[in-house]
Amino acid sequence: MEKTTIIQGREITPEDIESIREMIKANPSWGRTRLSKELAMLWNWRALSGQLKDMACRTFLLKLEKKGHLTLPPRLYSCRKVRKRLPCSYVPHKTTPIAGKLSRLLPLRIKVVKEKDLLGLFKCLLSSYHYLGFTGTVGENLKYLIFDEKDNPLACLLFGSAAWKTLARDNFIGWDEATRKANLHFLTNNMRFLILPWVKVPHLASHLLGRVARRISSDWINRYSHPIYMLETFVEKERFRGTCYQAANWIYVGESKGRSRNDRYRSLKVPIKNIYLYPLLKRFRNALGGKGQSSSST
Length: 298
What we know:
Layout: E1 5-7, E2 10-12, H1 14-26, H2 32-42, H3 54-66, E3 98-99, E4 109-112, H4 116-129, E5 142-147, E6 153-161, H5 167-173, H6 177-183, E7 187-195, E8 199-200, H7 204-224, E9 230-236, H8 243-247, E10 251-255, E11 273-279, H9 284-288
């Protein structure tokens, strides 16, 4: 490496590469996780919230290795394995059947999951009643629990990191690769949405999507010190119709290509999914650095 290069928006010099090599050589017991955390701390690589960006640093190191600049410690496990459901401790909760008109449940209480007791209930409900279960979270995320006025649990929503690259979404926004990388943190993915199976209330799902959409950016600022400008979700095509997202005015933009978000090796096959987006700003393309059709045409 004879000159500087740009990787993940950072200018990297030959001296930077050599310092990483020395770090690896001086600490043979470190795995890739420890190495990425130490390097992120050394370079003060942090999100706006102050959270250490060790996962971004891990990706950066993998790119350096792929380019032949260094050799990372061997993997402690195969990263190609599909993430497994996490075991969950049972948390007692009400399962009394709830049916009838939405107006009879109001006012609903939407809680951001922070306390340990709510987190336990959240994990238990998703693990027990969602077909994908609960596999943990990585990076920025928000968890919501919804209760009626009698403190009966009704629903769970989980928002996490947006998909790294999705052609239909990126074309809709008007992103090139550099702009996507710079603005992806302003999107969040609705990874789980569960109406509990004993709750049969018409229009509840779309109502909750609307309520959460109106508050999520403020909640994100409180937690991570930056706003959210767009929501995304991926609806398994052969399993669901996406009716509640359509009723809540989410925009269908196309289909996924049947690959996992983290499938760097193009080897993980997943079901085809319909992609829905929900802009939180009228001029969302301006906020996200996108180009193309004006937001008023969507």
